[in-house]
Each structure stands twice: as C-alpha cells, then as structure tokens.
Amino acid sequence: MKTQRIALSHQSSRKPENAWNARPSERHNEDQLMTLLTADAIGQRATFFIIVLSCLLVLGITKTLSKAHQKSNQDSQLFMYGTIATSFIIVMSAVLIWGSKDLPAWLQGIGSIYAIIVAILVSRHEGRNAQERSRRERAEDHRREAQRVNQEKIETTRAIYQIVLRAFMSFSYVRENAYDKSLSAKDIGPRKGEPDLKITGGKQWRSLGFKAADIRVQLRQLEAFVEQLEKIPPFEHRDAVLALLTSEFCASIKVLLADLKTGWNIESQRTAPGSGAKSTIKYPPCVKNATYTETEKLIGVTEYLAHGIFHMYLDEPECNRIEEVFLSWSQRANKIFLSHGPQASSGAQEDVNQAQQS
Predict the structure, then answer these.
(1) Tens of pLDDT along 241-260?
(2) Domain ranges of the chain
C-alpha cells in the first residue's frame, strides 16, 4: 500500500514536468509568428514588395522601349541589360533589408557574379556587332564592285553604240541618196525606227560629181567603222546579245560592200565608151577595169550610186537586215541604259544628237 502511494506520488510529480517541457516549443512557435507579424518585419516586406513592383514596372517600360528601338536597330540589347540591372536592384534590396550585417560579403559575391554575366553578354554582343560590321562591309564592297562593273558596262556600251550609230548613218546616207539623180540630199536614219534617230538632209549638190564625192566619203567611213567594230573582242561588249548583234551588223555591211564590188565587176564586160561620148561618169565599168586603181574603182562605184544605177543593190534583203540589226542593237542598249537610271539614258540621247550634228 505504501509502495502504491509512492508510485502515484512519483507519477503526479512528473506530469507537471512534462507539461512544463511542452510549453517552450509552443512558446517558440508563438514567438516566431509574433516576430513575423511585428511592425518592422511587415515594413521590411512591404518595402521589398514595393521595390519589386517598381522594378517590374521599369522592366515593362524597358521592354516597350526595346521593341521600339529594335525597329531601327535589330541588335538592340536594351531589354537584356535592363533585366540584369533590375534583378541586381532586387537582390541588393533584399540584402539591404535582411542581411545588412553581411553587406560587404554580399556585395562582393553578388558583384562578382554579375560582373561575369555582364562580361559574357558584352563579349557576345561585341562579337555579334563585329560580325554584322563585317557583313555590312562585305555587302558594301559587293555593291561598289557591282556599281563599278555596271558603270564600265554603260561606258563600254555607249562607246560601241557611237560607232554602230555612225556606221548605220553612213549606210543610210548611201542608201537614201542612191535611188535617182536628184541633187537634193534625202533624210537619213532608220525607216522603221524612232523619229529621234532621223537626220534631216536638205543639202543641195551643184552636180552629180559632188554627190558622188559625198557618197564616197560615207562609204569610206562605213568601211572604217566596220573595221573598228571588228577589232572589239566579243567579251569587251559586257553583253552577249550586243556582241552577237555587232557581229551580225558587221557581216551584213560587208556583204553589201562585196555586192557593190561584184556588181561593178559584172559591168566590166562592156566596151569602153568612145572619146566623143557624152557622159558624166568619169570611170565607167568596162574592159578598162583591170587598169583602174582601187581609188578609181571606188570613184566609179560611187558615180553609179549617185546616178541611181546601182539602187537595186540597196533594196536587197541584206540591206533591210542591216536596219533590223541596228534597231535591235539600239533597243538592247536602251534597256541597259534605262536599267541604270535616267542619267545613262540621257547620255545615249546625247550620242544621237552628236551623230546628227556630225
């Protein structure tokens, strides 16, 4: 009985001890809750929340400005650097609010991390800028090279066009004034071409001899222009179509000149006119052809042209082909001039004006 009382007294004495031991943990939880709800803690959290909201607002404004800036600069890094600066401000605000005692250590650690991040981003941005500059420089070099090639093409085409134009005008002069004995010079130029390529004649000759002399000058110029065109290599035309047309133009003119000489030789079977015969032709084709020099033969041919005797040779399809090739040459040249601006086109018109004046 006594033993039971001692045990009961012992148990009753331990109950208060267990109850007393449970109270500190409860009190600790209550202390933590009270600590979180203190005015200073609430103020710290409110301050941090305001700073975060302000930074997010600034970040949104930065994003808007970055989109507007990227329209003029595709490599704009405004938003990226704004994000880094905003995150740095948020982290440092948290450090200042809750870890101000260890501020130097926090500054050193966080500063080192952000310095590495910024260095990587700056290096990446500089590398992209260097690549973009290199790309722009290459593009500019290609543009300048293309411009130089185009300018050379224009100048070459214009120079060759001057020769082709003058050669055709010489041919047209012979063709239009070899149909009759008229002493009035006819208008020259392409019969189916633009009116701008027409040149008004209006000249009056004193005799058929003067007319033959002018035709002779034009024939010699025609031969000289053809020789110049034949000396130009095809690749110097800078255009395959123009090179082909130039070759065809020269070949057609050479066929015409050969036909005139052939026609002259056919007439060489005639007997020589008597000394008393009245004729304005100083060197008519006859059996004396073998004794004529090349100059005398040319004079005889131009006299026949001036009298309208050889006009049938100027109605052959080959003569029409000469005009067709010349018009094709002019159209192709105009396309080249127009493709490089009105200044090149105006230069081609100046060439026509110079040919009209000459």
Answers:
(1) 999 999 999 999 999 888 88
(2) 21-97, 154-357
